[in-house]
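Tetrapyrrole (Corrin/Porphyrin) Methylase, pasting as requested.
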Amino acid sequence: MQNSMLLRCCHSMAILPSSSVISPPRPRWSLSPRRHVSIFTTSLTSFPFPSTSQTIARALSFFSNNSDNFSNSDPIDTYPSKQSPLKPGLYLVGTPIGNLEDITLRALRVLKSADVILSEDTRHSGKLLQHYCIKTPLLSYHKFNESQREQIVLKRLLDGEIVALISDAGTPGISDPGMELAKLCVDKSIPVIPVPGPSALVAALSASGLSTNEFTFVGFLPKHTGTRRERLIVSANEAATQVFFVPPHKLTQFLEDASSIFGDSRRCVIAREMTKIHEEFWRGTLGEAKQAFSAHKPKGEITLLIEGMTISKNETLTESQLENELRELISKGYSLSMAVKLVAAGTLMKRKAIYSLALEKFGKQIESDSDGN
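Structure tokens follow.
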């Protein structure tokens, strides 16, 4: 009885070094308030209390033996969110563009908590969900069934469900399915919540070495040759860095068109397979790129950046120079307003002044051409 009471009294001192000698406290079970009865017949050093080094060794052994439990724990549980439960709505969730580690804890929480995940390719996205042990059901949602799925998804959202939308890589709705659904939800006053994440656009731009003060994201060019060249002409006359998404099998054609419109000396950066094992940033001029990739056919998604046109602050064109540029563009089939827009992009002159000149010089010519047709 005395021994068990003794152990309870000394339990809190068990982590003290064995070399410590402590005067025993007055026991609460003294037989008489006037008579001190000591129950300590020896010093504390005689008890087998563990030393500090022994205590640390035992703790390290525990964590070592249970390391698998810690390493395989759910990252959402390891870093619990302090936010309140998710509210119903459409969540646009950014996912890795190559490296599975590039996903946020918030994205994992949303994907785990959603009622359904809309996915561009369920097989591709299934690998991501399997990697993070997420069991939320997937529903295919891509450009070929987007219009058919909209009403089904809208009904689920109106019923108060949490719907997450992901693309194969990056942020949904940016050159990927999702834009129309987001617009529809906004029109119906359904919350649209962005969950920021990886972006090929921002990743390539930040590491390009080109100006990031101002840039234009063009994305994928139109398939029609005339429309594609027209868009390149607009980009060639802008001072901002131009950013394109280019399929690998169309890179050669893109470089041919771009070098003829931007000029061979314009600098460019070709970012390929970003965040993956074979990540590559090729830097040089459009002329050098055309030569380098004429024989070498790259693989993987490509983000291509072209530096903006350098415009001197004192650069102004004479009336004859303006007239020549307008005439050349109109002869190529551009409308008067488009010709004015393109010329104005390459000079500091006001578009209104250029438009007045264009009407004066070519207004009657365009009217007569229209009458003839």
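Note for the archive: The beta strands are 89-93, 116-119, 138-140, 162-166, 192-195, 215-219, 241-246, 267-272, 280-285, 302-306.
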